[in-house]
Write a structure and sequence with these properties.
heterodimer, A: 345 residues, alpha/beta, 8-stranded mixed β-sheet, 4-stranded antiparallel β-sheet, 11 helices, 31% helix, B: 334 residues, 14 strands
Chain lengths: 345, 334
């Protein structure tokens, strides 16, 4: 694990959107959609990003690919710093990094044929002949399991699962190293979701791809990801290898999130101890003082309303931002609380 | 087949067809089920399996044309709902049968206050005056767990979050103490932690109010948690119907069996690879003359292409529409 190469390194990434109000559209505040994220993605692995709607997971994905001009922070992809690069300079780098979008209905141009959609990145970034491009398009259609004879059809003739395959073929066209999948299965039916996830895994094995897999579906992320980051209100609250996170979640939010997932088995369902969170997620324009989760946390302490917990490594590879794990004496967190925590988990 | 008895709602051979320019779509075919007092019936299926259309047909909520209920009967309170005139149906909807829709963003009217929308059915159906309706509205909002209820009556829907809006929808549906509550994917648009809140609320309300609930969802996990009985739909038909523990422990229909294997879980063993159901759901352009699942079925044989299976009893209260017998692993006899 130690010698594995970091393909993506993100440090203190911030993406704030301005709020302008009044007739003068004066700048009166910021939506802190992504507020200080740091993480690495190793070559060939899948990093899952989970969280509820509005936690900033999609913004994070788009910011990492520089589809936005980020507020601050550094992003290094394949050794190249892209955080401050201009969009025109970024264009040359786009072939290494691609994206699969959530809504297969909206992300395909309804007036282009499948061949034109899959071939568009080739038109933009290569000077290949028409025949060579068509050959590549057929190759891609085979890879994602689309029949070659559909090449001249339009997106409306395809089902949701097939459209998502077109989107994946387009993302693969330029042999990227890194693909961000932004909720690629959210719009699909359960039986089709499994087909698309298996396709993504198969392609990863064959082509050595690195994924950042954004989803709100905790059970699917458990299946596909090697490591998982849990986001809440623009921050990563916990990041850990998959098995450690699902077996032994440290952050109270992760614990609540996992316990809230219904289990498709009435026997387990009857035994599961639910942690029901009170209230809703606060507005990212006006996050609470101290810890972002202090308004809903079942294990909240006084310190949580005062000081923002530090995001640090609690066990090898297991990061979390929570005062429950402060060493006694350092910030004065009660030791009993920690022990209790250990028993729960 | 369900028998006549003490059931609140009894649906027999319901058939709904949409007449479109490209031809008829047979969305619901010969669906029969019944609902016992105080029971929660979970309806599962993929999009296009006819689960929402079935429930909307029951109480005449589908626009006609294009929708047309071609056959069947819906017995409720000694009346056949399909034969009732619009005016009587209108009096019934909201009073005896409450409905909660999937999307809490679009099902509340943005230009009226939440209080007005809760009081509307109270004043119309129960003949309450403004003061009494207001008092009841406050009680309802408290019942569904909205803090500071009396102050929030004058708020508009956009001032509520998604989970709160769904609570308001539930409050409206509960306003007149309906005998039956139909909830159409009420938690699909919500986050898991909010979904857990709403599920707890529904469990709690069932104990307090004792009404019958039909809960439509595509999430097997939700069904496992709250339902008493489950109806699995596929291609506009009932594939399997039975008590929830029985169906989850001994699924009889190949579709139910496959569906349960495709869903990964956050608990227990992690499977190295997901099982898939290959292929696509069927087009419903014709009246079914063969099993709609046969193209994707691992156990299909020649009879499945010739006949559409009727519902065979498997055990007490548990039946399935399949010619394949899961106990013997061969064709069913009879």
């Amino acid at each position: 694990m130690a010698e594995r190469r970091k393909l993506v390194e993100v440090r203190d990434l911030k993406m704030h959107f301005p709020i302008n109000t009044g007739i003068l559209r004066r700048h009166t505040g910021n939506i802190k959609a992504v507020d200080g994220l740091s993480f690495d993605i190793y070559e060939g692995e899948t990093l899952g990003i989970v969280g509820e709607s509005g936690c900033g997971k999609s913004t994070c994905g788009r910011a990492v690919l520089r589809l936005y001009d980020i507020t601050s922070g550094t992003i290094k992809i394949d050794g190249v710093e892209i955080g401050a690069k201009s969009q025109s300079a970024l264009r040359k780098m786009r072939p290494t990094m691609q994206m699969v979008f959530q809504d297969p209905q909206a992300c395909l141009n309804p007036r282009m044929t499948v061949a034109a959609i899959i071939g568009e990145p080739l038109d933009e970034h290569t000077d290949w002949s028409k025949a060579k491009k068509l050959e590549r398009i057929y190759e891609l259609m085979d890879a994602v399991g689309l029949n070659r004879s559909f090449a001249n059809r339009y997106p409306h003739a395809f089902s949701g699962g097939q459209r998502q395959r077109i989107g994946i073929a387009r993302a693969l066209a330029l042999n990227p190293k890194f693909i961000i999948c932004d909720e690629p299965i959210a719009a699909l039916d359960v039986s089709i979701q499994a087909q698309v996830v298996n396709l993504l895994e198969e392609l990863q094995d064959r082509l050595g791809l690195t994924y950042m897999f954004i989803s709100h579906d905790l059970s699917m992320v458990r299946h596909i990801a090697d490591r998982v980051a849990v986001m809440y209100l623009g921050r990563i609250v916990e990041l850990a290898p998959r098995d450690a996170l699902y077996a032994d979640p440290l952050h109270p939010y992760t614990q609540a999130l996992l316990s809230a997932v219904p289990d498709p088995d009435p026997a387990i369902e009857a035994r599961v101890q639910r942690i029901i969170l009170k209230g809703d997620v606060p507005s990212p324009a006006n996050p609470p003082k101290g810890c972002n989760f202090c308004t809903r946390c079942p294990k909240v302490m006084d310190i949580c309303h005062q000081i923002d917990p530090e995001y640090r490594e609690l066990a090898p590879g297991h990061f979390a931002a929570c005062h429950l794990y402060n060493d006694a004496g350092q910030t004065g967190a009660p030791r009993t609380e920690r022990n209790q925590q250990g028993e729960d988990a | 087949m369900p028998e006549t008895g003490l059931s609140v709602l009894q649906v027999q051979n319901l058939k709904t067809v949409f007449a479109t320019r490209a031809g008829d779509i047979h969305a619901v075919n010969s669906v029969s089920f019944e609902l016992q007092p105080g029971e929660l019936l979970g309806v599962v299926g993929e999009s296009g399996s006819g689960k929402s259309v079935t429930m909307m047909s029951l109480i005449g909520l589908l626009p006609s044309p294009p929708a047309e209920v071609r056959a069947g009967s819906v017995q409720f309170d000694g009346k056949d709902l399909l034969k009732l005139p619009q005016r009587d149906l209108q009096a019934l909807r909201g009073r005896d049968i409450g409905f909660v829709f999937q999307d809490p963003m679009t099902s509340l009217n943005p230009v009226f206050t939440v209080g007005f929308q809760i009081m509307e059915p109270l004043r119309k159906h129960m003949g309450m005056d403004k003061a009494r309706a207001r008092k009841r509205a406050v009680d309802l909002l408290e019942l569904v767990g909205i803090p500071d209820a009396s102050a929030r009556l004058s708020d508009f829907p956009h001032q509520f979050s998604g989970g709160m809006r769904q609570r308001v929808m539930i409050a409206i549906a509960l306003a007149c103490d309906p005998k039956v509550l139909i909830a159409d994917e009420p938690t699909t648009a919500l986050d898991v932690t909010i979904q857990a809140q709403i599920l707890e609320l529904v469990k709690d309300l069932r104990q307090k109010l004792g009404m019958s609930i039909i809960w439509i969802t595509h999430d097997l996990g939700v069904i496992a948690g709250i339902a008493d009985r489950v109806m699995v739909m596929y291609g506009g038909q009932v594939a399997e119907y039975g008590p929830v523990r029985e169906v989850f422990a001994n699924p009889a229909h190949p579709y139910t069996r496959a569906l349960m294997k495709t869903v990964p879980s956050v608990r227990g063993e992690r499977a190295p690879q997901l099982n898939v159901i290959a292929g696509q759901p069927p087009m419903l352009s014709q009246h079914p003359t063969s099993c709609p699942f046969r193209a994707r079925c691992a156990h299909a044989f020649d009879r499945c292409a010739r006949e559409n299976p009727a519902r065979f009893p498997v055990s007490e209260g548990h039946d399935t529409a399949c010619f394949w017998d899961h106990k013997t692993g061969g064709p069913r006899h009879g």
